[in-house]
Amino acid sequence: MSLICTIFNSQHWEELCKVAEFPIVNKVESYTDENLTVLLKKVLSNEELAKLLAKRISVSLIVPPLHILFKSFSNSESLTSRVSTVESLLDSLLALYKKNRKYLRIYPMSTLFEKPETPTNESVSDSLPHISLDSLSIKQDFYDIICHSLVHQNPQLLKIFRKIESCFMVSEKQSVFFPQLEGMEEELINLHTGNQIFKEENARLLQQLHLVQEAIEVKVDTLNELKQEKSKVESEIENFRISGAKQNDLLKNCESCLFKERNKTKMLVAEKKAMVSAHEDEIQSLNKRFTDKIKEFETLLDKRLSDISALKSSHTMLEKKAAREIKNVENKLAAKLKIEHQLRAELAELRTIKQSKIWKVSSRMEKLSNIVDRDAKKRKQLIQDISLIYTSELFEADWYLATYKDVKESLIDPAEHYLIYGAKEGRRPSQHFDGNWYLKRYPDVAESKLNPLIHYIRRGRQEGRLISPVMITHNKKQ
């Protein structure tokens, strides 16, 4: 049971809280039953999340894709400040996760959504809600494509987000939120179709305008003819001057109305032409931007494909190398088992010899010999050291003879040669133990004048000392 929440404000999170069939609380204080998994609608800050984790509350944190997260900071003053804000937020989340791995689980937002008719390949925890992406009232636009392109052109931002992805409980399904170019193409087609309809309507208006102009010209010609007739018959219609004056006023009013309508028609035609020109410029600009983005995506895709191919070849080489190393280890293990069997047989034979009378007599002779021979003690210690390093996996007799041909030609026991001459000459007992490095690393061992391998077997291993610089590099990587 856990608290499902987020520290990244986005439209997807708000829509999820509206449609999720899941217990929802609006504030952290409302979360009282720790045995119930609930969805926290409020977007938390890093400080609030740290307080929850300090109370040892199990938290499932939802992280949106990088381009959606970047889009949610669109109110920032500049692109640089937006990138800096996102980097700071991701860095603080990564630090918080490292301190609270036990109680903090991070999931990608794609875990909660799935495209229709597309089965998921990875099982999602039953404790998380599962919503169809089509149930949300969110539409993609050109700004999604721009944000997606911007974040993938920032290596530092991608590097930080890859670290966050490595903390995900499940892998992210990038295709769920990837901007759909097909929808943008349909939008452009619809816009182009609307522009064609607008042009046809404008052509019809121009045709009607021409008809109106022709009608006005006919009326003007008729009016001129009437004026001429009026001047000719003015003397004859003196008695009807009042009625003629009224008709003249009426004609003037008609001319004024026709002139006003003509001006309105001209203004409307000018506005329509300006709108058509603006739409054509906008369409050309969008087409150019769309073409540039397609080229960028194709270049990015080619780069990703080449990277995948290189990773596959590297993986194949590593598998072959691992197989060879496994085979070598198996061979060494078999040889070690064989030596162990031989040692057990020799120990059994040694016990039998020690119980015999001859051994007792020889032991007394050995004591007498030790009194006479001062070097007997050193030889006895040498034999013990030879037996000790033969039991260690850090001494490989076959490797020692194969590496140092002069030792093989001298017919000296490899362990005896290493103890007497090899360590002083800087020779290595195996490829895993570096005696010279061991003495430089630990000056106290060098001052004791002990053989470095004997010291490591007897004391160094228990004291946690390193045997080569390779182990230091390996520990740092871990």
Descriptive account of the structure:
It is a single chain. By secondary structure, the protein is mainly alpha-helical. It folds into 3 domains: 174 residues; 135 residues; 104 residues, no CATH class. The chain is built from 18 helices and 7 strands. The strands form 2 sheets. It has a 5-stranded parallel beta sheet with strand order 2-3-1-4-5, with no helix packed on it. The protein has a two-stranded parallel ribbon with strand order 6-7. α4 runs parallel beside α6 and α8 packs antiparallel against α9. It is elongated, with a radius of gyration of 46 Å. The two termini are 31 Å apart.
- Binned strand content: under 5%
Largest sheet: 5 strands, parallel
**Spatial extent as radius of gyration:** 46 Å
How far do the termini sit from each other? 31 Å
Which regions contain 5 or more consecutive residues with pLDDT less than 50?
115-125, 474-478
Q: Structurally, how many domains make up the residues?
A: 3
What series of H and E elements makes up the topology? EHEEHEHHEEEHHHHHHHHHHHHHH
Strand line-up in the sheet with most strands:
2-3-1-4-5
